[in-house]
Design brief:
- This protein is mainly β and 186 residues long.
- The protein has a single domain, classed as Mannose-Binding Protein A, Chain A.
- The chain is 8% helix and 18% strand.
- The N and C termini lie close together (10 Å).
Length: 186
């Protein structure tokens, strides 16, 4: 039985949200901190991490192991992007339905809003979510034109397409709710 709280059903918590930062960023970013901060400002109580491979962690392991198989990955409005976290990393480049929007923390569709002139996301990973140390903007610490980062043009309908770009580009950065949070009132 689902309880209603502030007109939101508790089932809202039975999924993980994939949300974009409010502005595009170059390869020099503090993305985890910005994901955390913007989620808090948007009134979201869960923890959000950058949808990026880093020097400490492969993208595929950002979500807790216990939450990788049974929770759908949804946009800010609860529309399904992926059946579960693991399905993003099955080798097909993170194929998703391009008709399901990806929203920023402030509610804008990154695919149509002019604040993101280049519809490309940074990820720094292989198609299986493993870090590419030669293509992740020196662990996301440089916007140098000569450095490179792995990114994916969203028009292709893939989050993990394998394209290399200069770290000086300003692209979309996604954040993933990285652990299931049960409703404290439930």
């Amino acid at each position: 039985k689902l309880k209603k709280k502030n007109n939101v059903f508790s089932s809202y918590f039975l999924q993980l949200h994939l949300v974009a930062l409010n502005l595009p960023l170059s390869g020099d970013m503090r993305a985890d901190f910005q994901c955390f901060q913007q989620a808090q400002l948007a009134g979201l109580t869960s923890t959000y991490r950058a949808f990026l491979s880093s020097h400490l962690q492969d993208l595929a392991t950002v979500v807790r192991k216990t939450d990788r198989y049974h929770l759908p990955i949804v946009n800010l409005k609860g529309e399904t992007l992926f059946n579960n976290w693991e399905s993003i990393f099955n080798g097909n480049g993170g194929q998703f339905n391009i008709h399901v929007p990806i929203y920023s923390f402030d509610g804008r569709n990154v695919m149509t809003d002019p604040s993101w002139p280049q519809k490309v996301i940074w990820h720094g990973s292989t198609a299986n979510g493993i870090r590419l140390v030669s293509n992740y903007c020196e662990a996301w610490h440089t916007a140098d034109m000569g450095a490179t980062g792995q990114a994916s043009p969203l028009q292709m309908g893939k989050l993990l397409d394998q394209k290399v770009f200069s770290c000086s580009n300003q692209f979309i950065v996604l954040c993933i709710e990285n652990s299931f949070v049960s409703d404290p009132q439930g």
